[in-house]
Amino acid sequence: MSNPILVTRSSMPSLNEYVDEIKDIFDSHWMTNMGVKHQELEKKLKELLEVEGVQLMVNGHMALELGIQAMNLTGEVITTPYTFASTTHAIVRNGLEPVFCDIDPKTYTMDVSKIEELITDRTSAIMPVHVYGNICNIEEIERIARKYSLKVIYDAAHTFGETYKGKSIAQFGDASMFSFHATKAFNTIEGGAVAYHNSEYGLDLARLKNFGIRNEELVDYVGSNAKMNEFSAAMGLCNLRHLDEEIEKRHKVYDAYRSGLAGVEGLHIFEVQKDVTSNYAYFPIVVDENVYGHTRNELKNILEEHGIFSRKYFYPLTSAFDCYHGKYDVNKTPIALHYSKRVLALPMYSDLALEDVSKICNIIIEFAN
Ligand code: T4K
């Protein structure tokens, strides 16, 4: 293969479409601070996500940090270690204690049967993650949250555009955070959002992303600066026009992988869950080395020798990060630990040629014992 194939490749509109979209920014010289592009994108996302409100942010991580801050949480937050650094860091950077729940071996989202045993009188919220395109057991999380009066904020970084039982994924929980990073199925270059149902909460978020400023003379929150700029919002407006097409192309890549890898013993592929419309954000496989004949790391290396760059999303568990100095015991989440050592995200993006998918599949098949 001549050109390397990376784990993903940003989707972009045509240059002309983007230039058209940013022309009025050059006319007005209004580049940030909730300008017209920002307002228009928020309005469009609110409609698409079918929620009371959406606050755009500079990235998904700040959306998560401020989403938590606006909830005035205290003590402990039950979450998952099987995620990107952002989820756990957002809890810790809010002065809260993450309490790690193990994952479900089918979806790699939080194992809801293990949540209640982790609840203490210090627990204030649950922060589950919809992993890849797999969504959490929403009904059970809602039941538990109601029973113990806990807030629920979903890390929905991977699931923009998905629906569950015909409803937008953003309708569940008190709030959901989405990432619009360059590597996501929908991107604003860098960007993110919090979607919510309570307008008071939305007002707090709007202030928090703008230094806590209420008006010219009143600053009554210790806020941050997390405003999305107009060029990012313009990219979002362009990409939103192509969202359906983007997901459809990813769907074709997903189908090509599925048929290409069907029957390879020792590899697990995720099926789209019942009642879910997927955005096909990632294509993870799970390698059982005893059956496949090679470890996940060996497979990653052989792919690299062919110029194909996969990623270990998610390894290591966030609870094992050096910055936490061994504070959390990874053995308390054995299922998450097990799969973090075996999962490999293969290249996935809308422009990935189907013949490249078949080459990748053939390398994986030939490498199997
Ligand atoms: N929660 C969860 C569950 C998340 O997965 C994430 C982000 C967040 C929260 C936080 O959201 P943000 O604050 O990021 O909005 C990438 C992304 O940077 C990150 O957004 C994402 N999750 C994570 C799963 O993946 P890296 O370190 O793997 O990215 P990087 O730079 O290695 O890029 C991967 C590939 O993407 C490259 O090999 C090529 C391609 N690429 C990359 C960039 C930057 C492009 O085609 N264009 C680009 O501009 O983290």
Automatic annotation (TrEMBL):
GO terms for biological process?
polysaccharide biosynthetic process
Q: Does the keyword Transferase apply?
A: yes
Please indicate which superkingdom the organism of origin belongs to: Bacteria
Q: Where is the active site?
A: 184 (proton acceptor)
Q: What is its EC number?
A: 2.6.1.-
Which CDD domains does its entry note?
AHBA_syn (cd00616)
The cross-references to InterPro entries, in alphabetical order and at most eight, read:
DegT/StrS_aminotransferase, PyrdxlP-dep_Trfase, PyrdxlP-dep_Trfase_major
KW Transcription regulation (keyword) present:
no
Q: Give residue numbers for the modification (N6-(pyridoxal phosphate)lysine).
A: 184
State one molecular function term (GO). Answer: pyridoxal phosphate binding
Q: Which SUPFAM superfamilies match?
A: PLP-dependent transferases (SSF53383)
Principal EC category: transferase
Q: Which keywords label this protein? A: Aminotransferase, Pyridoxal phosphate, Transferase
Into which family does the record put it?
Answer: Belongs to the DegT/DnrJ/EryC1 family.
Q: Which protein is depicted?
A: DegT/DnrJ/EryC1/StrS family aminotransferase
